[in-house]
Amino acid sequence: MEDYRTLEDQARERIAAAADLSALEALRVEYLGKQGSVSALLKTLGAMAPEERQEKAPAIQALRQSVFDALAARKAEMEAAELEQRLAAETLDLSLPAPEMPKGSVHPVSQVMDELAEIFADLGFAVATGPEIEDDWHNFTALNMPESHPARAMHDTFYFPDAAPEGEPASSSAAVGQKRRMLLRTHTSPVQVRTMMSQGAPVRIIAPGRVYRSDSDATHTPMFHQIEGLMIDRGIHLGHLKWTLETFLKAFFEREDIVLRLRPSYFPFTEPSVEVDVGFAIENGRRVLGGSGDEPGHGWMELLGSGMVNRRVIEFSGLDPDEWQGFAFGVGVDRLAMLKYGMDDLRAFFDGDVRWLRHYGFSPFDQPTLSAGVGARA
Ligand code: DAH
């Protein structure tokens, strides 16, 4: 009997220590298999005298049961551990925090440029670009501002120290033998010249971009943004200009009651030149565009410069002014943004203050479209 106890303890100990299922199976075979030690003990019962069998049979049966139970328990334990391990490995933690929202925003200047591109695309205008480092021929001379022209002095130009001019094809006679000074373009108007020279006529483009002047206060920064418009075709007149500006400004400000006033003015590159004012009313101490500036309590605000392209500019650009005519306009993009979205200090546009950007910036999802509104705000 003592031997059975020892055998049972030993078996249970080894079973408890079994490392894996195959070790456990080996132990099962060793104890309970056909040739197993416990099975061998059971076989001895047949040869025993009845009294002895009566005494030993329950002990051997109990031993067999005990080993069997230990094997089953250890097996269940191993299977549970394996399942546990698999569950832990395959866990998908749905409670993970959502990724942070991206912090960037679309600058109002970019947003307004996109709005303008959308509006003018609908009128058949493509977007054209030109270099910000320009030469004085494109920036001034070809725009009918020769060397001595007083308008040059009014532009507060940033000139580069004299250097060999970048190779612009000397196709125009005016450029031949003339040294070109390099500068930061003072307006987007040189893109008019570049576009006519590179693509001929007819032309329908807008040219948004950065321009530079040595000037700085609450409404002037050394770098600011303009958008130029140019239409060249046969038989273009001031009526086309007025309709185009009206259509553009109504779409941009999303109001049907935009009223324009065209005032005679002077720009070297247009003839005749007109300055365009827009009517506004005062509401809650703020200027709100809309209605005629001549109504009581209303006023006119100067908005942009424009006119019929001077025939000398068309000539400088290599086209025949007797065949091609057109209109042009130039307007400050930053100013358009301030009027539409209500900022009052231009300098803040370029400070990069995240609080300002968060407040005035746009979501990338606010894509301006004519159908959804070019001023959609999240
Ligand atoms: N280039 C002018 C400026 O910077 C703006 C301008 C006026 C552009 C009249 C034009 C125009 O195309 O026709 O002040």
Question: TL;DR of this structure?
Answer:
The chain has 378 residues and is of the alpha+beta class. It has 2 domains: 87 residues; 253 residues, Bira Bifunctional Protein, Domain 2 (BirA Bifunctional Protein, domain 2), CATH 3.30.930.
Task: Write down the secondary-structure element order.
Answer: HHHHHEEHHEHEEHEEEEHEHH
Bound molecules: 3,4-dihydroxyphenylalanine
Strand percent estimate? 15-25%
Rg over alpha carbons = 44 Å
Q: How many runs of DSSP E, i.e. beta strands? A: 10
Instruction: Please give the domain count.
Output: 2
What is the molecular shape?
Answer: rod-shaped
Q: Which stretches of 5+ consecutive residues score pLDDT under 50?
A: 169-177
Main β-sheet description: 8 strands, mixed
Put simply, the count of helices is 12
For CATH, the homologous superfamily of the largest domain is named as Bira Bifunctional Protein, Domain 2
Features:
single chain; 378 residues; alpha+beta; BirA Bifunctional Protein, domain 2; 2 domains; eight-stranded mixed β-sheet; two-stranded antiparallel sheet; 12 helices; 39% helix; 20% strand; rod-shaped; binds 3,4-dihydroxyphenylalanine
